[in-house]
Amino acid sequence: MATTLTARCVFLGAPGAGKGTQAKKVAEAAALAHISTGDMLRGQVSAGTELGRQAKGYMDAGKLVPDDLIISMVKARISEPDAKSAWILDGFPRTLPQAEALDRNLSANSALSHVIYFAVPESVLFGRLTGRLTCSKCGAIWHLQNNPPKAAGVCDLCGGGLVQRSDDLPEKITKRLEEYRTLTAPLLAYYREKNLLREIDANRAPTVVFQELLKLMQ
178-205, pLDDT tens digit by residue? Predict the structure, then answer.
């Protein structure tokens, strides 16, 4: 059923809404490319590509990687064989200028087909983030209450150590949510005007959200 999806998607939502977790699951089930801009940046730097070398210069200096460089990476990534017909963008765009730049750089054959908004109340997001643990080895995400590992501090999948990301500390979460409201929330109106926005109630069991996502992306 899901293997026939040909969606070209952006997953939108506040930190902790479950975008990354669901993007990985949908990509695996439906043979879509999961394009995480964070993973992509690290991959380009690790591979020593020209784009990676440029990005590393900004990252080493503690500066944000410019939008045009991120866009170039996205364009290069979606031109690869596994992403030519179907992909999910996770973590980008984050601002209105980034969304406009993305539109300008996508061809007619690679234009967005869906934008999925993961709706979750902020009170729930805060609880999700403060309890979140990430595997330092494979990147799998666990949660102290909602999805605890079998052994404390150890990833069930690979045995790697589980850590709390520095940006999941309470004071950092408050700032991330403020930035989201200011910078990213305006994208909802932008994509709604383009008739691309589809909303999903992400404050439910992950399996329920996953099944509904597959339907929304048809």
Answer: 888 898 889 999 999 999 999 999 999 9
